[in-house]
Design brief:
Blueprint: H1 2-40, E1 49-56, E2 61-68, E3 73-79, E4 83-89, E5 95-101, E6 106-111, E7 119-122, E8 124-129, H2 134-148
Antiparallel strand pairs: 1-2, 2-3, 3-6, 4-5, 5-8, 6-7
Helix pairs in contact: 1-2
Keywords: Signal
Signal peptide: 1-24
Length: 152
């Protein structure tokens, strides 16, 4: 009986340590993706935008908020499980990252828009970025693919 308890205790501790390690690895991917995204965004690409906020959350949502000089805000959000692919498009003036989802899975909303607020869905989010090295681009794609496969 004692031997069985000891085995169960050892298995329980092992499972706990493995789940803790997996959580840390997942958090490392989130941290890396946030770092890469925030350093890559080109805040000067849109002259009227005064603030960019890009974040990948612990519950696997990509969120982007742009605040314009006149107070208008644009908000984009999608769950990483709906993520399909990311394209890097070099341009003459600005480079862009394009995030594609499987269907109309990107929430798009505007606030304080003089033309009226919008609440709709999209399949692509376009973000202006600075030149990205091949290594940074590949590691960002890898992080997004890993987080896409995680089930909450």
């Amino acid at each position: 009986m004692r031997k069985a308890r000891k085995i169960v205790l050892i298995l329980g501790i092992t499972a706990l340590l493995c789940s803790f390690k997996a959580f840390n690895a997942e958090q490392d991917w989130i941290t890396w993706a946030n770092h890469a995204l925030s350093e890559s965004v080109d805040p000067l690409a849109e002259a009227r935008v005064k603030k960019w906020e890009i974040m990948l959350t612990a519950d696997h949502f990509m969120r982007l908020r742009k605040t314009y000089q006149q107070g208008k805000q644009e908000y984009y959000s999608f769950n990483m499980q709906r993520f399909a692919e990311m394209d890097y498009v070099p341009g003459a003036v600005n480079d862009t990252l394009r995030f594609h989802t499987r269907a109309d899975d990107i929430i798009y909303q505007t606030y304080n828009d003089p033309k009226g607020d919008i609440d709709s869905m999209a399949t692509m989010l376009v973000m202006p970025v600075r030149k990205l090295s091949a290594g940074r681009l590949d590691s960002l794609k890898q992080a997004l693919e890993v987080l896409k496969g995680k089930n909450l």
